UniProtKB/TrEMBL annotation:
The gene is glmU. It comes from Aminobacter carboxidus. In the C-terminal section; belongs to the transferase hexapeptide repeat family. The keyword Membrane does not apply. Residues 254-455 are annotated as: N-acetyltransferase. This is Bifunctional protein GlmU. Residues 9-145 form the MobA-like NTP transferase domain. Its cofactor is Mg(2+). Its EC number is 2.7.7.23, 2.3.1.157. The lineage of its organism: Bacteria, Pseudomonadati, Pseudomonadota, Alphaproteobacteria, Hyphomicrobiales.
Length: 455
């Protein structure tokens, strides 16, 4: 969009006591990503290149988390909670650097859309000094009301400070504001705290700017997109809204979801075209699914890459580092962790493949286990291409099974199996003709003798 520079200030000092949690409110997650990270992503998408994060209670945890989602963010501490304007001024140093646009956002409003922020920035570019993002909640109680006079936005009145007339206004402050960098500090420094809560209200800059003859305007965003989260019930509502948006996007981008309401995505899930996802599938963080793949019902995937036309499940678990190449199959009740299943290889039933490579076209029989852990360290299993592992085998790592080798069912394999070899790792079967009949007769007469004694 514009070449104007932009700083986003994210207020993350919320106490969040109603979450009843040891975790700071803004670190609670939506789609496996902290709420405050969603806010910072939206700001980034709207072109904010600098981020100032204002933390308070639980600040250390938020600071640490920020290293992951916004490594370049500057962190400021608001030691005392004296109001939203006071919180913004905690980032005074960042504001003083002279950005063109400043976006003020709340860390507990995770569904905010970049479009709303872009629109607000555009209004700044057109000459507004302050842009307030408004919305019309079903019940305005508790929100600041947007007071318009002669078609101008003249003030925001907090619920507690409203007259009865003002309280009837349905157009409310969502809490998001865009402020022209050229005016920001001058406006913020004039905010006082003579109001019902005795706080320094950010919202007061509207009246201050209007009185100074600066242009102040309101834009409107949807109720859903500015939902503020205060407890876990609202957290779940926001999750549901996020998931519905993402499911719709996945379908519009060419994936088939048979029962979309039962499929859960993470913030970073990548689904290609012509992927089929059956009901009740969970995508944890870091999953990529290539074109034509099928994820059958009740599968759980995390940190996994599923190749083109590969098949997963039903009831499969792919853990971090699972790499399925083209047309690979991981079937029911199988778990794959940190392992590559190469082109066309099959792990179809009841198997555990961890720290391993399964070569192209190999077949892993039902009940096969890679014994990768001795209680202290992990070891690697390398299965060559075209190998056949008979059912119910234990491959004790570190171990190499050569290409095209056969492992007999029920084997415990502890030594390397060379290419094209056949390995038995079990006792040989012994069959004694007629011995079964003899045994049955012996058992029957012993039981009869016992009964006769008892009488
Ligand atoms: C605020 C707005 C109100 C708006 C509503 C939308 C003000 C004065 N009021 O009211 O107009 O309708 O949000 O939800 O801005 N915070 C700090 N430090 C503080 C105080 C607050 O960091 O000293 C943070 C909070 O963590 C929160 C945000 O600022 O993320 C808003 O504060 P909150 O107390 O929830 O304000 P509301 O009364 O909801
Ligand atoms: Mg609030």
């Amino acid at each position: 969009m514009t070449s104007r520079t932009c700083l986003s200030i994210i207020l993350a000092a919320g106490e969040g006591t109603r979450m009843k949690s040891a975790t700071p409110k803004v670190l609670h997650q939506i789609a496996c990503l902290p709420m405050v990270a969603h806010v910072s992503r939206a700001a980034e998408r709207a072109g904010a290149e600098a981020v100032a994060l204002v933390v308070g209670h639980g600040g250390d945890a938020v600071r640490k988390a920020a290293e992951g989602f916004a490594p370049k963010a500057e962190i400021f501490v608001q030691a005392e909670r004296l109001g939203t304007a006071h919180a913004v001024l905690a980032a005074r140093q960042a504001i003083a650097k002279g950005h063109d646009d400043i976006l003020v956002m709340f860390g507990d409003t995770p569904l905010v859309e970049a479009d709303s922020l872009e629109l607000a920035r555009q209004k700044l570019a057109e000459g507004a000094a302050v842009v307030v993002i408004g919305f019309r909640p079903p019940n305005p109680a508790g929100y600041g009301r947007l007071i318009e006079k002669n078609g101008r936005l003249a003030a925001i009145r907090e619920d507690k400070d409203c007259s009865d007339e003002e309280r009837k206004i349905g157009f409310c402050n969502a809490g998001l504001m865009a402020i022209s960098g050229a005016h920001a500090l001058k406006l913020l420094d004039q905010v006082g705290n003579t109001n019902a809560k005795g706080e320094f209200y950010l919202t007061d800059i509207v009246e201050i700017a209007d009185k100074a003859g600066l242009a102040v305007i309101a834009t409107e965003a949807s109720f859903e997109s500015v939902l503020g989260i205060n407890n876990r019930a609202e957290l779940a509502e926001a999750e549901a809204i996020w998931q519905n948006r993402r499911r719709r996007q996945a379908m519009l981008e060419g994936a088939t979801l048979i029962a979309p309401e039962t499929v859960y995505f993470s913030h970073d899930t990548e689904i290609a075209t012509d992927v089929l996802v059956e009901p009740n599938v969970w995508f944890g963080p870091g999953v990529r699914v290539a074109t034509g793949a099928v994820i059958h019902a009740f599968s759980h995937l995390e940190g996994a890459h599923v190749g083109p036309r590969a098949e997963v499940g039903p009831y499969a678990r792919l853990r971090p580092g699972a790499e399925l190449h083209e047309k690979a199959k991981v079937g029911n009740f199988c778990e794959v962790k940190k392992a590559t299943v190469e082109k066309g290889a099959k792990v179809n039933h009841l198997a555990y493949i961890g720290d391993a490579r399964v070569g192209a076209g190999a077949n892993i029989g039902a009940g096969t286990i890679t014994c990768n852990y001795d209680g202290f360290s992990k070891f690697f299993t390398d299965i060559g291409e075209g190998a056949f592992i008979g059912s119910n085998s234990s491959l004790v790592a570190p171990i190499v099974i050569g290409a095209r080798a056969y492992v007999a069912s029920g084997s415990v394999i502890t030594e390397e199996v060379p290419e094209d070899a056949l390995a038995f790792g079990r006792a040989r079967q012994k069959t004694l003709p007629g011995k079964g009949k003899e045994l049955r007769e012996r058992f029957a007469s012993a039981a009869a003798a016992k009964k006769a004694v008892a009488k």
